[in-house]
Specification:
Residues 1-20 are annotated as: Disordered. The protein is of the alpha+beta class. It has one domain. It has helices spanning 6-13, 28-32, 113-126, 135-153; strands at residues 23-25, 39-41, 49-56, 62-70, 87-94, 99-100, 107-108, 162-168, 171-180, 183-189, 194-201, 210-212. A hairpin with a 2-residue loop joins β8 (162-168) and β9 (171-180).
Length: 221
C-alpha cells in the first residue's frame, strides 16, 4: 500500500470523507501539474465527463487523482437503487518506489495496485449512505467500512476478489474486481507508469475500456 500504516495510508491516499491527501486540488490546474498521464474511459463511452480532484503531498507533488464519467454521484440514502446515479470514476495513481518522507522522519511504501484499490474502495464509500442510518451514525459506519476497504485492498488475491480482463490503451489488461451492495470496485496496473482503480454504480464494469486522456482540460466545465 501507500504507507507503512493504516493511518498513514489514509493520509497519503486520501480519506473517504474528505477525499484528499495532504492536499486536495479540485481544479484542472492540479491535474496539469501531475508528472504522469491521467486515465479515463476510452472513446466507446460517449456520456458526460468531469473532474473530481487530485491528491498531493505537503510539498505539492501530485500523487493520484480521479476523473468521473456519467452522472455526478451524490449521497441520497432515501433513493431506491434503481434511481441512483449511473457513474464510473477512474482513479490514476502514480507508480513510485519505496521512499523516505519529505520531512525525513519515515518512509512510504511503494505504490501498487492495492493503492488504487484502496482509493477506489474508499471513493465508492464516500457516495454511500445506508438509508437506515441517520447523520449521527454515518461517521461511525464510514469508519468501519473504510477499515474493511483497507483490508480488502491489501489482499487482492483473496476470496473477495475475482479477475477480469479489460482493455487499457487497447491492450488486454488483468484487473482485480469485486462487487458489493454499494457498487463495484476494480484495480490493476497500466504500462505507462501508473496503477488504475475504478468504481461505479448503475453501469457494468464488464465491457469498459480505459485510455490515456490526451487533454485533461476536456473534462473541465
Amino acid at each position: 500500500m501507500e504507507t507503512t500504516s493504516r493511518a498513514g495510508t489514509r493520509d497519503a491516499a486520501g480519506s473517504a470523507k474528505a477525499g484528499g491527501g495532504a492536499a486536495a486540488l479540485r481544479t484542472v490546474e492540479g491535474y496539469l501539474r501531475a508528472p504522469f498521464p491521467w486515465y479515463g474511459l476510452d472513446g466507446a463511452f460517449t456520456g458526460p465527463r468531469w473532474l473530481m480532484q487530485v491528491g498531493a503531498t505537503a510539498d505539492g507533488t501530485v500523487r493520484h487523482g480521479a476523473t468521473g464519467h456519467g452522472e455526478e454521484p451524490s449521497i441520497r440514502p432515501e433513493a431506491p437503487a434503481a434511481d441512483r446515479e449511473r457513474f464510473v470514476v477512474v482513479v490514476t495513481v502514480a507508480t513510485s518506489p519505496e521512499r523516505r518522507t519529505g520531512d525525513g522522519t519515515g518512509h512510504l511504501d511503494a505504490t501498487t495496485a492495492s493503492s488504487a484499490a484502496w482509493l477506489a474502495g474508499s471513493g465508492l464509500l464516500a457516495f454511500t449512505w445506508p438509508p437506515q442510518l441517520d447523520h449521527a451514525l454515518r461517521d461511525n459506519w464510514l469508519d468501519q467500512q473504510t477499515e474493511a476497504a483497507f483490508e480488502l485492498a491489501d489482499d487482492l488475491d483473496g476470496p473477495e476478489w475475482t479477475t477480469l480482463s479489460l482493455p487499457v490503451d487497447a491492450e488486454p489488461t488483468p484487473f482485480h474486481y469485486r462487487e458489493s451492495e454499494f457498487g463495484w470496485v476494480l484495480a490493476g496496473s497500466a504500462r505507462r507508469g501508473v496503477h488504475l482503480g475504478a468504481y461505479g454504480r448503475g453501469m457494468s464494469a464488464y465491457g469498459l475500456g480505459f485510455s490515456v486522456i490526451e487533454d485533461i482540460r476536456t473534462y473541465a466545465p
